[in-house]
Amino acid sequence: MVIIDLLISLFSKPNSGFRPYLIAFALLVGGTIYVYLDPRSLPAFLILMACPLMLYFLKMNNRVKLLIGLLLTIVILPVLGIRNIFYLEVIFQISLFSALALGLNIVIGMAGLLDLGYVAFYAVGAYLWAIFGSKQMSLLHSIPGAAPAGADFFLDPSWFWLFIFFGVGLAALTGILLGLPVLRLRGDYLAIVTLGFGEVIRVLALNLDKPINLTNGPQGITPIQRPPLPPAAIMDFLRTMLKPVVGHDITDAQFYNVLFYFLALIVILLAITVARRLEDSRIGRAWTAIREDETAAIAMGIPLVKMKLAAFAAGASFAGTMGVIYAANRTFVSPESFSFLQSIGVLTMVILGGLGSIPGVILGAAMVVILNIQVLQTFSLYLSALRQSDAVIPIINFAWKDLSTQLDPAKYQKLVFGVILVVMMIFRPSGLIPAERRKRELSPEDSE
Fold it and tell me: Between the N and C ends of the chain, which has fewer C-beta atoms within 10 Å?
């Protein structure tokens, strides 16, 4: 926590001259060169990922910030991701969970409605495209008029673009259906009901393979179609332009990874724009009043029912969008992908970054994803390599090959997250980048 405070104080002080520009240039160029020369360098990749955070705190011209941000997200990260496909996967995961965390932040951070079943809306969007974008519809021949027995019925892949909007609408409708029975609940009771709702959706996905095979049960649905790539002439031009930069031929799978990265990035930008607009709008202030005191909000004339349903619908819509994109990206969905721990993971991102804070939520999602699938996994692989050697631990003279595999860091992800949350609640309860209102609420009162 002290390190975070030092970084914030260093980069948030009024800077003069070229100091902030030099810092941004050094981080961006240095991280890019190191990752380009050594695509497996974890420290260099972490430095590059820290550039957006530094840009947020550095005091410089907003146009320069925008230019550097566009250069990083549109040019540098896709190129480096093609050179090392694992990095692009990490970036896609960050974008995906950032959008989910921004949606949950509307429900919890703005409206104060503790939702522990948020992953249900994510599952609704994923299964929507999984059912219609695969041959799963061919298994519905038991429904009269649905499809003849033995026929292969599935939509054209170009329908994916329309189903993104269908995912928004269906997830928002599901959020409203969830909100209707829980309008009178608050606090722990609301959390229990939403938790049950999330489990109901998962169990339905697990068991709706009889008597009508709608979700294919625990086996999941695969293969799910992906949207079509641009015409062959455009693809050949891009391959010709990028081959000297990345150093090898670019496959369709790598182009798909870049495509889904940009789709997730667009959803994040839309989520940030909507959240910013709602934050200081009439609806956002009504949500704040409901979060602080429902009784006082009703006394002031705020329509409680309408505002709660709007919060559930707005938060769920982003999860539905990312569900459709996730299904097309993975070409496979199963009930195990939408467990209760997924909801807790998204909630952890929101709490870690700061309730109600848009940049904090994105930072929390990035830190959890990088720690989960990058840092801990890298340490586990490093320990595995040491076990294959004859090296020993200094001082205690203990052979690495005798180290138990039960001590791999990747097996203690939940433990690490739990420790982080405990430390955060003790030393920085407002989050890494707290919202101004939340910061004022938790700061000690000035003595007279």
Answer: C
